[in-house]
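Lab notes, practical 5.
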Amino acid sequence: MGNLKNSDLVEIVFWLLIAVIFFSVSFNFNQPIEIYKFGATGWPRVILALIGLAALGNLYHSFKNGSKTQKGRVGASEAPDQVYYSSLTDYLKTAWILVIPLLYAISLKPVGFYFGTPFFIALVMLAWGERRVKFILLSTLFIYALLIILFMFILNAPLPQGNVSPFYDFSAFMLKMKTQFDQLF
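Output from the prediction step:
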């Protein structure tokens, strides 16, 4: 079977199973939404399709090339893929990387997507070791703009708005701007 290893197959089957199982479960809550023409399962199904597509791409790549490290790949090291923890700081860095998404998920209800997402993006970059302020700001703005374009304009998906006053007001401003943009066309 080409250069496929058992671990490659297990990983690919795992991701395909997740995509198929979640896609089949999505029929349980597929309801029309007044403001979203694709229904409650529109964008989750797109994400699941992308997961399936990525798994099949990984299958093809592993079949052709195996799981060896690609030469010339940016950020790839020639050393074995082992992580060494030499101090408490290393453990805290790993814990911080794992805690940031949890804090983001908890903050979505009170703070909302529109206000909390840029901070989440910047914190993830900081946790991964990026220290160039200009790069963090520009990358955060670029990624945030892509997410806004994807979810607000292309998918027209309702996002968490937050329920605490200044954050809710920011979300209301974003939605007002989107409504004004929609009325232009």
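Observations recorded by the TA: The radius of gyration is 20 Å. Residues 28 and 41 are 10 Å apart (CA to CA).
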